[in-house]
Amino acid sequence: RYIKSVDGFTGCYRGLTPKLCAYTISAYAVDKVSETEYFKRHFGTDGNERQDGEEEDIEDLPDEE
């Protein structure tokens, strides 16, 4: 009520546009990161997959000395 009496009707919505823009950018960024993680998990682009398409097994790794 105080803001409306001092700044008018538009004072109640001051800052709404920047906040909506920030939420939109944040949602887009989260979507892209999630998409990338999904792609890595399902297509093995995180370096855990061999070039021939077979995953390395722990028994196939060389022993450390």
Automatic annotation (TrEMBL):
Taxonomically, the superkingdom here is Eukaryota
Sequence ranges of Acidic residues compositional bias: 52-65
- The record's region (Disordered) falls at 43-65
The protein, known as:
Uncharacterized protein
Q: Lineage, please?
A: Eukaryota, Metazoa, Ecdysozoa, Arthropoda, Hexapoda
